[in-house]
Amino acid sequence: MSISIGIHDLSFATAEFVLPHTELAAHNGTEIGKYHIGIGQESMSIPGADEDIVTMAAAAAAPVVARHGSDRIRTVVFATESSIDQAKAAGIYVHSLLGLPSATRIVELKQACYGATAALQFAIGLVRRDPAQQVLVIASDVSKYELDSPGEATQGAAAVAMLVGADPALVRIEDPSGLFTADVMDFWRPNYRNEALVDGHESINAYLQAVEGTWKDYTEQGGRTLEEFAAFCYHQPFTKMAYKAHRHLLNYCGQDTDNDAVSAAIGRTTAYNTVIGNSYTASVYLALAALLDQADDLTGKAIGFLSYGSGSVAEFFAGTVTAGYRDNLRTDANRAAIARRTPVDLAGYRDLHERSFPTDGGDHATERHTSGPFRLAGISGHKRLYQAR
Length: 389
Ligand code: CAA
What we know:
Strand content: 25-35%
Bound molecules: acetoacetyl-coenzyme A
CATH class: Alpha Beta
Largest sheet: 10 strands, mixed
Oligomer: single chain
Number of helices: 12
Radius of gyration: 20 Å
Helix content: 25-40%
CATH topology: Peroxisomal Thiolase, Chain A, domain 1
CATH architecture: 3-Layer(aba) Sandwich
């Protein structure tokens, strides 16, 4: 008999500051409807000078470890596009900040926004091998495009921490998966760049091709039918993309694409991403958090997940919401993580955007910005220095 494996706990953190799109629109003369309706974004999270993927990841994971302990966690998989080191896994800093046991394996995964889904699937494999073990999957990203570029309005930052184990309290992840890979240059970031390069309109087409490709494979692998799903969590580089993707899927399947059907499938999944912005690897799991926090009772219902990472790799898979899941949600904390952000004005945002550490190996302290539990205190001898606040 196959055991039930999936997401046992889910917690997220975002950044200290928030820039409303009204500020950006006033600066660049964009009609605000393009942001609010055209791409479906209201505001974006902006990390303080002493925040990065590690501080957000540790802030997301700390409540998970506090609730469940770390005795069963023997693996941490950290997925990110915005890595801080070419060699050392960011998860090792999180391991240290959270005081996890030394008997832990830690690795970092990369494939643009898709990495956390690979991490989730690898975690399920590990748990299947030894159901007593749990895996901490972390997705953490700071999305950064050039100032005054079309991508700028889709930036954001967040981390999601998921505890993966047997008999999950939230969502059971099902077989099969539908897979799709294509060698495309829609979004990429050479090692010498802080900001992503993107062919915006090509990236939307590449995403839609991946929706078709994953669904085709999912169906061929014997997956569920479209009608069986109560909702769909898509990767949301901007929330309108989820609507485009679902409309495309319905069309591909020869179904009606009326607005009500699309809104019913997507509407409850966008609440967090619309105010946080693109969090790359974390985005599809923020969609899940929003769905579980907002919706009526979803017990026993099937949810479709479409994870897309430019370049490109994508995966469609299903999850079933488990009985009693509502007792294990973090709805208040999730809403507080968003509400606690401090508004930043355009000049402040642009200043933070352009900051980077000198590369001279000297001692460079960061300004105190974060009110979160962990901070990046500075850099010294090319080493990043993290501390509990
Ligand atoms: N009121 C309402 N809607 C308006 C409007 C107004 N006043 N003005 C414009 N719009 C609408 C447009 O009609 C358009 O909608 P449709 O796409 O439905 O036609 C929408 O607003 C956007 O307008 P444009 O296409 O003219 O906007 P743009 O040229 O500035 O580019 C973008 C938009 C391509 C998404 C750009 O923000 C970008 O490059 N973003 C980064 C790349 C990205 O997010 N790609 C997504 C797929 S790749 C991926 O998913 C991986 C990842 O995370 C990066």
